């Protein structure tokens, strides 16, 4: 069974530029999560989807961050414009149900210059 | 006080040593307790999952939960260089609350 796929793995951009990350969850997993992991810290939840519905986006900085999960499968997380402080690893995870084990992708490492 | 506290280390041990990793938490509502392992430049992967006080063993790994003290531990026996990674505790409230709260992670190096 294929795991959670994320792309790109690495991204370097100038500040104020837009950037987008893509996630393909494990087949059949209805719940999808986006996490932010800063260096030396544990992951922190940004947004959770149940199918195509964003059921918790309370931690998402909505002035610059947006996300979508069309058709309840793949998801995209966007930052526009990026700031220096956005440099971090963005992790996508999926689970078969909201309290089940969460399976993580390898993450996208973003560097904002 | 943070909801989950974890000593970030780093921790360096010789091969074959017994490793003890620990977390404390503050919210009595937490019901599910997990340990994730994260290799460098990889996503976290679940090692152990438990929901009751006591010990749970899986091979060289033992997860211990003490709800009365709000203290969880992961023990690694006969540690191997391949165990070198960051270990993250994660706790979940359960019920309709899906949210995982992670510790900072402890960086472990097992030296051959």
Polypeptide structure, described:
The complex is a heterodimer of chains A (113) and B (112). With 113 residues, chain A is an all-beta fold. Chain A has no helices and 11 strands. In chain A, the strands form 2 sheets. In chain A, strands 2, 4, 5, 6, 9, 10 and 11 form a 7-stranded mixed sheet that branches. In chain A, strands 1-3-8-7 form a 4-stranded antiparallel sheet, with no helix packed on it. Chain B is globular. Chain B has no helices and 11 strands. In chain B, the strands form 2 sheets. In chain B, strands 2, 4, 5, 9, 10 and 11 form a 6-stranded mixed sheet that branches. Chain B has a 5-stranded antiparallel sheet with strand order 1-3-8-7-6, with no helix packed on it. Chain B has 112 residues and is mainly beta. Helix content of chain B is 0%, strand content 59%. At the A-B interface, β5 and β10 of A face β5, β9 and β10 of B.
Which labels suit this protein?
heterodimer, A: 113 residues, mainly beta, 7-stranded mixed beta sheet, 4-stranded antiparallel beta sheet, 11 strands, B: 112 residues, 6-stranded mixed beta sheet, 5-stranded antiparallel beta sheet, 0% helix, 59% strand
Strand runs of chain B, count? 11
Helix run count of chain A: 0
C-alpha-based Rg of chain A, rounded: 13 Å
Shape designation of chain A = globular
Helix-strand pattern of chain A: EEEEEEEEEEE
* Low-pLDDT stretches of chain B: none
In short:
The complex is a heterodimer of chains A (113) and B (112). Chain A has 113 residues and is mainly β. Chain A is built from no helices and 11 strands.
What's the arrangement of secondary structure elements?
The complex is a heterodimer of chains A (113) and B (112).
Chain A: E1 5-7, E2 10-13, E3 19-24, E4 31-37, E5 44-50, E6 53-56, E7 65-68, E8 75-79, E9 88-95, E10 103-104, E11 108-112
Parallel strand pairs in A: 2-11
Antiparallel strand pairs in A: 1-3, 3-8, 4-5, 4-9, 5-6, 7-8, 9-10, 9-11
Chain B: E1 4-6, E2 11-14, E3 19-25, E4 32-38, E5 45-50, E6 54-58, E7 61-66, E8 71-76, E9 85-94, E10 97-102, E11 106-111
Parallel strand pairs in B: 2-11
Antiparallel strand pairs in B: 1-3, 3-8, 4-5, 4-9, 6-7, 7-8, 9-10, 9-11
